[in-house]
Model the fold of this input.
Amino acid sequence: MRMILAMIELEVRRLRHDRTELYTRAVQPVLWLMIYGPIMSSVKAIPTGGIPYTDYIAPGILVQSTTFVSVFFGLTIVWERESGILKKLLVAPAPRYATVIGRSMASGVRAIFQILLIIPLALLLGVKFIPNPAYFISAILIIFFASGGFAATSILVTSFLKTRERVMGMGQAIIFPLFFASNALYPVKMMPPILQYFALVNPMSYVVDAVRGFLVSGDLSGLGMDLAAIAIFDAAMFAAASISFRKIIE
Done:
């Protein structure tokens, strides 16, 4: 636990000195909410359960933005390998899985800062969130832990690809299928059958469903399944990334 907290504290130090990436990554979700949401809200064919369309997609855009940060966390790992930091971590008196979980959960810190940037902007654009502080905190915690699983996925990919260019290309190949084959922009029942099956095993679908329930719809009937799916996803990615972690520097 001390190792994990040290990794998180390291990420906080980095963000204190350089927050440029957070600001630039906030541009895309704002464009989704400012342009795509109002345009598509005029199309009445998408069933949102009586929720304005911009409000409906706001949790999905929020999750997509934080997942984007996590999936590209492997670029930081590449930099740490080139600078020699990873070699020092491997010889530290701590289990390898603690190092992997710590580095993965550190991406959750970036996700929280991303949330704190996007939510005020969404409020300015007219998105109506449920005014419940406990719900906000719960949504943030869900995104925090889910970000760890996506960052572990990035570490796993980095252990095989190893270069920044390949990691960036694979990150694009991962994030967009997860995003468009989830319930971020439209209900799963509107998808073709094959995509509906994919949505069932898509971790982003469960993260969006839980966050949407807390922030917009108030429907928490599927929360138990959402949390179980996120926990299984995180555990599987942490285990796989821990096994392959040493390959990053070999």
